[in-house]
Amino acid sequence: MRLSVRFIKALLSSTVWWLGVAISLVLALLVARMVDSKTEAVFDYQVNNAQLAIQTRMRSYIDVLRGANALFYTSKDVSREQFHAYVSQLRLEQSFPGITNLNVAFHVTAAEKDGFEATVRADTSLNAAGYPDFHITPAGERPDYHVLTYLEPLHASPLSFGLDIASIDLVAKTLAVARDTGQLVSSGRLIQVAGANQHVGMAMRMPLYRLGMPARTIKERRAAYYGSVGAGFDISKLMLGAVDKNVLPHLRYRIYDIGLSDDHSKSGTRDPGRLMFDSETGDATRSPALSGPVFVKRVAMTVGPRVWEVEFTASKADMKDEFDTSLPHIVLVIGLFAAGLLFSIIYSLTSARRRAVELAKEMTKDLRASEASLAEAQHMAHLGSWLLDITTQTMTWSAETFHLFGLERYSALPDYSDYLRRIHEEDRQRVQSGLAKSLRSGEEFSTEHRIVRQDGTTRWVQTICRPSNNNGVIVLRGTIMDITERKQTVEALKRSRELLRELTAYQDRVKEDERRRIAREIHDELGQTLLALRIDVSMLEARTGKSHPRLNEKVRSALQYIDATVRTIRTIINNLRPAVLDLGLTAAIEWQVNEFRRRSGISCDLVLGEEEFAVDDARATTLFRILQESLTNVIRHAKATRVRIELTKEEEHLVMRIADDGIGIYPDARKNGNSFGLVGVEERVHGLNGKFVITSMPGKGTTLTIHIPLATAEKPQENATGAERARSNRRE
């Protein structure tokens, strides 16, 4: 309690503390201004994106009206049916929900009125009954009429069918402007549409000129004019969705109609009568105001001949996230914390002498605890550490290092010669050379070697060391780890693998012998029996040819079955052990390549060395089975078009290479649990003390290379003699 009071009094009277408070306040104000600037920049960015989205939406909708206008320049007479088909393909409700209708108003003079009404009533292109009740509205005689004749969809605005839109003075003036200029026009006046589909809308129109007539001057345009194409827009549907509220959730915009593009007197207006749309309410009927400080930006855009002004607003509070709002306060808190921390450091430094003794005691206690923990960890891991001073040749050993050598801790430091003396004499020179090389090169040295313990037992250890600088003196730091159990496990695993390979080789030999025996039995017993049976049946077939035709037919059928059985037996014998193996390795490989070409249809090149390959039966059989397995894999997996097989002699090894141009093998494919074919090939090669190499890249084919050492000179000679005997027997 006394210390706390002293600390608080020192804090309140400290210049450092109050200076830190002042700096923290200034930084908090600066950060608050930066946050406001950033928020305003984000608002401007969102306004630009929203403006672009609104302009893009308006252009796409106006392009629909331009497309409808262009339809009438494709033919001199566009029928109601053609206009209906065109609008149907636009799918207004799905693609352009803001367009309520597309329409065509034809220009009709007073003299043409009766004939025009009769023509429309008789139009049965879409309605078999025509339109018998059609008449131009409102009633009355006028010099000219602009009659809504084509209206799609008609069911949405049935009251507008036949309406003379020029009966309204403002619309008549707008139509005259469109006729004389040839441009898109809009009255700019909001239209309150009643009925089931009640909405606030607007209309735009484009003039139509007769195809083939010039329209360069006002006079020519008036002569060629025969009507206009128009579109009705639902302002609410047109604008809703133009700006994605999920992306810009805090942005509100209101659209005002300023007037014609050359009239800027109304710029900046907030006249409710000119308000066309408010994104907050979805229409222009009501416009609640935002509360609190807001960002406001007004931008103008041209829509046809008129200018719209869009007022974008957003609440400053809504534009800021929680982090931006809290950032000035965070800076203030951090500044005050930093000031308090700085004062605490100064305060601690001034009182450091008083606490030095207590701190030293605590550090000594912690150091002893760390040493005890390290010693325990080293003992559990059987890992010792040591340090060699090059200048004095003395070493420092950890407790576990003494334990690994079977020693009690020395009262004096052990020296380097004592360390080397305890290394097994067969490994001593190698370890000593490695330590010296590490000192010279500065690189890490790692090796496994044996040590002789105090009781005379031998243990395997792993030593790792590297030089380092210890207060300007080059020392060698190292670790020594007992790996005797791991070494024994590795040796046991190695012996197990060797036994497994010997067992595999033995099984292969037994399997080949059994195949050879079964093939011989089938050939000698079943083959001879079938041959005798075929001779008897052939004689019976010859004797019954004329005397018993029906029996002769049955005999010939039996003879065919016997021949098929003989062929099947030959196939089984070849699958068990091809007889061609008795003719030597070269003949067997040539036979297998021909079989591969016949079965797969894949091009296969065989390249044989110039020397004669005289190998014992075990090697010949192994190479033949490897070739069989490899070609089977090519058919199943490689998707190759060409295979190349090379069999050559290199020094004292027989080398066989099998290369294809297929899809290759992916790096992880050999680790697949289903790749037993490659595993079997590899085990066969290792069983003969050979080497097996796979070279492959995805999409670039695969090459298998097998190196098998040749047998001694006596055995190949014996095998060659046996092969010659087999050839002689086969020729006989």
Kindly describe this structure.
By secondary structure, the chain is of the alpha+beta class. Helices cover 50% and strands 22% of the residues. The chain contains 20 helices and 20 strands. The protein has helices at 2-12, 15-71, 80-90, 92-95, 113-121, 169-181, 218-224, 235-239, 316-319, 322-350, 352-381, 399-404, 416-421, 425-441, 484-547, 549-576, 585-600, 617-638, 676-687, 714-731; strands at 99-109, 144-152, 185-186, 191-193, 199-209, 225-234, 252-260, 275-278, 294-303, 306-315, 383-389, 394-397, 445-452, 458-470, 473-482, 603-608, 642-650, 653-660, 691-696, 702-709. Strands 1, 2, 3, 4, 5 and 6 form a 6-stranded antiparallel sheet that branches. Strands 12-11-15-14-13 form a 5-stranded antiparallel sheet, sandwiched between helices. Helix 2 runs antiparallel to helix 10 and helix 15 (484-547) packs antiparallel against helix 16 (549-576). Mean pLDDT is 80; it is low at 712-732.
